[in-house]
Amino acid sequence: MINLAYKDIRHTLSKFLVTAMGVGMLLGIVLIMIGVYRGMADDARMLLRDINADLWVVQQQTLGPFAESSRLHQDTQDILRALDGVDKTAALTLQNIQLYNRQQQAVRVMAVGFDPAGDFQVIPAQRILAGRSLRAQHFEMVVTDKTGFQLGEQIALGRDTYHVVGVVQGSVSSSGDPLVYISLKDAQNVQFSYSNPRIRNDRARGLLGQNTQLVNTVVAKVRPGYSAQEVAEQIETWKHLTAYTHEQQATILSRNVIERSSKQIGLFTAILVLVSGIIIGLIIYTMTLEKIKEISIMKLIGIPNRMVVKMIMQETLLLGAIAFVFGNIFAHLIYAQFPKRVVLMWNDSLLLFAIILTASFLASLVGVYKVMKADPASAIGG
After folding, report:
1. What is the mean pLDDT of the chain?
2. PANTHER family under this entry (predicted)?
3. Which is it for the CA torsion 175, 181, 185, 190, positive or negative?
4. Residue 113: what are its φ and ψ, rounded to 5°?
5. Residue closest to 364 by CA, chosen among 253, 250, 285, 290
6. From CA 147, how far away is CA 127, in angstroms rounded?
7. Which of 62, 272, 283, 306 is the most buried (most CB within 10 A)?
8. Measured between alpha carbons, how far is 47 from 45 in angstroms, rounded to an integer?
9. pTM above 0.85, yes or no
């Protein structure tokens, strides 16, 4: 049996492929947008996974260090460690800072402060690319490879200069900024101490010195056999603390930190998918109009409508399938160039493929309608 779609595509192959490539680039952008969301969601939980704490203890009635400001006294970690059911604790600071590279270009990072000799190993050993973790209590820094800083480099921060002793791979904050790691004492000095002019001004006003023995959160590991939720409830009997389990903190990150961004990306992606379907429909409608005389001739010589309709649908579905292949290739070629991490997953690709095939089928109905309305008599005489 003659395949009309094959004959027609072969006749205009270059035009068909160029059209599919154009639609494919649009679908590639859709995949990139989905990948940006996946990367954002994964980045938001990266530090949470690295620290792997059962409990996050923060200032009362706050959502914790990722969502809003939280300040605790550093000795809270010692009090928590004495609780029944708590195995180990660590005090942490998290702060957004701006560093400058050798070219004096600004590099926005999040600095994580922790005690190198403490109970928790905050820096994931499996992701250390060069050098080592922190050992000294002062003037050492571990950077993420995305910062552009190199092992052994000197970095100015505040009044001091830090020596890069290690480089880790891909560590980022919930907002996608690369992480740097410094000791807790250095982090407190940067975050909670004032500049010399401010100190002199405060003294002139009769104000006492600033307390730097503060942290943003205390994390804890629960002993085997104890429930993290029960220990959290025990901690919250103290009126000045709020405790979240690992799962609750992950939910806060998803709902309060990246929810608005994820909704915006989701809406933009949905619009792109809709536009892709409309474009495919317009392309098929235009292609049908271009060969409406040939279709009329086919109908005139007795070729049934179902064969012509089958041709239109086959061409539409093939256009969608080829565009999807080009879109995947395009997305995988450019995703690494984006400043934020893009995570491309085959599950998302397959879902998009199903959506595009459905949209292509619906778009083919536009061409089918035109075919059914074609008058065979119009083929006579031009």
Report:
1. 83
2. ABC TRANSPORTER, MEMBRANE PROTEIN, HEMIN TRANSPORT SYSTEM PERMEASE PROTEIN HRTB-RELATED
3. negative
4. -105, 130
5. 285
6. 15
7. 283
8. 6
9. no
